[in-house]
Amino acid sequence: MQKYISTLSCNLKCLRFLSMFNNKIVFGLLIMVFLGACAAPSAMLGPIYTFTSTGSIAQTSLSIGSNELITMHTGKTPIENIKELAKAEDKNIHKDTLESEEFYILVKNKIESTKIVLNQTNQ
After folding, report:
1. pLDDT tens sequence across 8-48
2. d(CA 63, CA 66)
């Protein structure tokens, strides 16, 4: 059996290869668009929301400017500052209360007053 090699069959093979190559490029670009550099575009979501809800360029620019000012002054974005504050408030209040000197004195006084009441009832 003899294979017929013609210009048309060669062109079809090239087109199939290019279409496969283009699909990979398009898929790669879509992945990069949707998954790459998520932090940078999401930083503009706040000002974009401000602009769409108020329609005021002044409020939008104030929002962007204040975010940049906070970032320059603290070295962290406003979201990072909020996360840090939430972690600071997340400490164990119950443990701190149980280990405090005031709680120790309160419990000691209650125990002593209970001892006195029990001794009086036992007599």
Report:
1. 556 556 556 556 666 677 777 767 767 665 555 566 666 77
2. 5
User: What is the C-alpha to C-alpha distance for residues 105 and 73, in angstroms, rounded to an integer?
Assistant: 44
Which residues fall within 8 angstroms of residue 71, CB to CB, at 6 or more apart? 77, 78
What is the per-residue DSSP string for 36-104? Answer: TT-HHHHTTHHHHHHHHHH--HHHHHHHHHHHHHHHHHHSS-HHHHHHHHHHHHTS-HHHHHHTSHHHH
How far, CA to CA in Å, does 27 sit from each of 19, 20, 31, 41?
Answer: 12, 11, 6, 20
Q: Are 67 and 59 in contact (CB under 8 A)?
A: no
pLDDT digits 0-9 by tens, 56-87: 788 878 878 888 888 888 888 888 888 887 77
Q: Record the pTM.
A: 0.37
Token pair 């998520």 in the structure block, residue: 38
